[in-house]
């Protein structure tokens, strides 16, 4: 038994876990691979934070504008005003941000009106993850379960209408489902980028937290807002590799082949020749929703065999940008490319789930019983990408994700510590269903079903949508759900079947949300809504 179980080991999960453990609560972190297998570890650009009070109002304004007016203003103000304190916390945990003679070496990214991005070269997420893992491993009262996968939440009746969390079922590396009682479950399991064919997310991002919470009756919201990062390295046969937005903040320019040809004819600066200026006055530093759609549009207009646009860096100081972005430079070298050299092929890829489990200002989840429109969900919390806090609205502002995660992790920890006391009493919970189940699923083509799912979501529920395609996706996903549900009811779980079940569940939620959104705003764009 644990007082607190945290599902996920990114910035949100490890930050909240160490705080709960420090307060004397027995805390268990469950992560389905290694601790470092998280989207946090892959985050390059940095963490946005108004470090001066004079920047508060501008950061609030930038966030609300990027979110197309759908952000919760009170949540935005809360997050921005708590940012500098949380940066201090990260530094106290051992995170080393880059600095210069004036203090932090702040950069700018798309949608920001000033330099407010703290970073550690182009591996900020990895540096945060490194420091938090060191802190977690040294924390008393904290147990770390790697290669363990959360399967489903265990509920108990609080009343005839309202459920309460009492524990969680977890799949061990040996294939056994363990029952773990807990007073609080904090879901910090990240996003669901793997429901798409091309994604910048790690392989673990299969929507487990959203699916698990929704099956238990938690409210979800805004799942139609899926952010596609406009500049993922587009190399045939390779997994998309994120080319940080900070590179465009440093002066890199998006261009088509035609733009490049014109630029070379005049031999001038590339800026005036970027296709982005036809879409937004900010050019390559417009917000991600605008840049991703513009890139997609240009790709469809030009040579259909050229499935990319180009990120031009040859006008920048080669030595400087290679030193500033060593992670990107190392990856490019594997393909015979380099920063400051030939144009880089880039294309949009699924990157971030703006929607998720609906939570309040402390990360406490909400549920929708029949007796009320919306109430809190006792014992269930969600933080990080898995949660929908109201900060991002219809489109996330660059580098606000790590900020949101650490602010809500801190508030969540404070709420848990205030409302939960260490317990020594054992709780009796139901064991995982086991009778009559077969383990013979190795001949069932689950990999094929996963590919069909990803193709359906990419082709029909992607960057640009149509009503007929959304309806087709809904039919296909329902067929997959029925097929996988039959398998699920008759087998012992494996990570593969648990992930596929979750991916189908989240894909159906995303598709339904897209169908129900009748106006184009932010990341949601349906040609039939024009």
> What shape does the CA trace take?
globular
Q: Roughly how many Å apart are the termini?
A: 54 Å
Hey, roughly how much beta strand do the residues contain?
A: 15-25%
Give a count of the beta strands, DSSP E runs of length 2 or more.
20
* Count of runs of 4 or more consecutive helical residues: 15
- In angstroms, what is the radius of gyration? 23 Å
Supply the helix-strand structural class. alpha/beta
Low-confidence stretches: none
- Fraction of residues in H or I helices: 25-40%
Average pLDDT over all residues: 90
Q: How would you characterize the largest beta sheet?
A: 8 strands, mixed
Task: Write up this protein.
With 530 residues, the protein is α/β, with parallel strands linked by helices. It is 37% helix and 18% strand. The chain has 15 helices and 20 strands. A hairpin with a 7-residue loop joins strand 12 and strand 13. Helix 1 (11-22) packs parallel to helix 5 (124-137), helix 1 runs parallel beside helix 12 and helix 13 runs parallel beside helix 15 (495-516). The longest helix is centred in the last third of the chain and has 24 residues, at 467-490. It is globular, with a radius of gyration of 23 Å. 53% of the residues are buried. The mean pLDDT is 90.
TL;DR?
This protein is of the alpha/beta class. The chain has 15 helices and 20 strands. The radius of gyration is 23 Å and the shape is globular.
Task: Give the topology, please.
Elements: E1 2-7, H1 11-22, E2 27-30, H2 39-42, E3 47-48, H3 56-66, H4 73-92, E4 99-100, E5 103-104, E6 117-118, H5 124-137, E7 142-145, E8 149-157, E9 163-171, E10 177-187, H6 208-215, E11 220-221, E12 226-233, E13 241-242, H7 245-249, E14 253-255, H8 257-266, H9 288-301, E15 309-312, H10 318-324, H11 326-333, E16 344-353, E17 356-358, E18 364-367, E19 375-382, E20 387-388, H12 400-419, H13 446-460, H14 467-490, H15 495-516
Parallel strand pairs: 1-2, 1-10, 2-7, 10-19, 17-20
Antiparallel strand pairs: 3-6, 4-5, 8-9, 9-10, 11-17, 12-13, 12-16, 14-15, 15-16, 18-19
């Amino acid at each position: 038994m644990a007082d607190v179980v945290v599902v996920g080991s990114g910035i949100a999960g490890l930050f909240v876990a160490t705080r709960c453990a420090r307060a004397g609560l027995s805390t268990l972190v469950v992560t389905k691979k290694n601790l470092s297998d998280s989207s946090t570890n892959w985050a390059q650009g940095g963490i946005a934070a108004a470090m001066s009070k004079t920047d508060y109002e501008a950061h609030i304004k930038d966030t609300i504008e990027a979110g197309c007016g759908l952000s919760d203003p009170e949540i935005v103000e809360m997050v921005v005003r708590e940012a500098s304190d949380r940066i201090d916390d990260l530094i106290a945990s051992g995170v080393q941000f880059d600095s210069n003679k004036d203090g932090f070496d702040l950069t700018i990214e798309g949608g920001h009106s000033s330099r407010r991005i703290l970073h550690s070269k182009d591996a900020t997420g990895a540096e945060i993850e490194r420091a938090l893992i060191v802190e977690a491993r040294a924390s008393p009262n904290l147990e770390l379960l790697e290669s363990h996968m959360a399967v489903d939440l265990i509920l108990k009746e609080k009343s005839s209408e309202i459920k309460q969390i009492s524990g969680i079922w977890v799949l061990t590396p040996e294939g056994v489902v363990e029952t773990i009682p807990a007073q609080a479950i904090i879901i910090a399991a990240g996003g669901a980028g793997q429901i798409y064919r091309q994604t910048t997310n790690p392989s673990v991002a299969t929507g487990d937290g959203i699916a698990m919470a929704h099956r238990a009756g938690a409210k979800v919201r805004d799942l139609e807002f899926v952010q596609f990062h406009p500049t993922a390295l587009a190399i045939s046969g390779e997994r998309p590799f994120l080319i940080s937005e900070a590179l465009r903040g440093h002066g890199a320019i998006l261009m088509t082949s035609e733009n490049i040809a014109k630029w070379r004819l005049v031999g001038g600066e590339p800026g005036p020749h970027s296709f982005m200026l036809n879409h937004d006055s900010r050019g390559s530093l417009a917000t991600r929703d605008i840049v991703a759609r513009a890139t997609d549009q240009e790709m469809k207009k030009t040579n259909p065999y050229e499935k990319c646009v180009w990120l031009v860096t040859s006008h920048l100081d080669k030595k400087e940008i290679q030193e500033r972005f060593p992670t990107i430079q190392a990856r490019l070298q594997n393909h015979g490319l380099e920063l400051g050299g030939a144009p880089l092929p880039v294309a949009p890829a699924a990157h971030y789930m703006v929607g998720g489990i609906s939570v309040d200002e402390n990360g406490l989840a909400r549920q929708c019983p029949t007796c009320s429109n919306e109430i809190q969900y006792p014992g269930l919390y969600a933080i990080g990408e898995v949660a929908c806090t109201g900060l991002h609205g219809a489109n996330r502002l660059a580098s606000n994700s790590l900020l949101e995660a650490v602010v809500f992790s801190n508030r969540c920890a404070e709420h848990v510590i205030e409302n939960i006391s260490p317990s020594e009493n054992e709780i009796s919970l139901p064991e995982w269903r086991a009778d009559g189940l077969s383990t013979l699923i190795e001949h069932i083509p689950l990999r094929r079903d996963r590919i069909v799912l990803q193709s359906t979501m990419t082709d029909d529920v992607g960057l640009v949508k149509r009503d007929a395609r959304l309806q087709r996706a809904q039919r296909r996903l329902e067929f997959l759900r029925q097929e996988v549900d039959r398998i699920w009811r008759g087998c012992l779980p494996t990570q593969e079947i648990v992930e596929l079940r979750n991916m189908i569940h989240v894909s159906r939620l995303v598709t339904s949300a897209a169908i129900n959104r009748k106006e184009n705003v932010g990341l949601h764009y349906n040609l039939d809504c024009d």
